[in-house]
Amino acid sequence: MTTRLEQQFAFLLEAEKLKSVTRATPIHDGSRPENSGEHSWSLALYALVLADQAGHGVDISRAIRMLLLHDLVEIDVGDVPIHAQGGAAHDAPALLAAEAAAAERIFGLLPEDQGAELLALWQEFEANETPTAVFAKSLDRTQPVLLNLRAGGGSWEEFNVTLPQLEARVGAKIARGLPEVWQAVRARILPWFAARERL
Fold first, then answer.
1. 22 forms bridges with which residues in the sheet?
2. Any idea where the HD domain is (predicted)?
3. Phi, psi of 22, rounded to the nearest 5 degrees
4. If you count Cβ atoms within 10 Å of the first and of the last residue's Cβ in the chain, which end, N or C, has fewer?
5. 96-120 as b/e: b if 16+ CB within 10 A
6. How many CA atoms lie within 13 A of 49 on its CB side?
7. pLDDT digits over 140-177, tens only?
């Protein structure tokens, strides 16, 4: 076995750990929390299916690759729900630094050329500046909303999320890359929040 193949196997076995990272968002039927491996697979499928919603300059193949990689850092740092601690912890400098260190470690398991390529993809996603990264980030915000809605509120109930909070923390990010998707999603969540307020 070559050293290159050994490094690739080491990375792939490390990546399997993502299946053990529990997220706040439930799966579709609300029976259990989703894990980060399932989330990454779902987002790759979202990119494939919603490719017709992508704006100018979006590379769908590159977006799928980003989405398969984007949460690998959670192997080291865990998942930090966007609504936890009022949404403030999600972009905290300490968390961002920990994620960057995790990316260096995890992608560093690969052969140097391959590791550098995948780390650059992860960094592009995190920077959220290119059309492809904006599209991918928008999908990353869309999927949990649809799962929470399907599961009867999911993590919105756990963190007592209000409609204005959801629109500020999530809606604006979806709308940036997927404006029509956000309008369709918003039309679905408005009745849920209205019914909740009447209780």
1. 35
2. 15-182
3. -85, 135
4. C
5. eebbeebbeebbebbbeeebeebbe
6. 9
7. 999 999 999 999 999 999 899 999 999 999 999 999 99
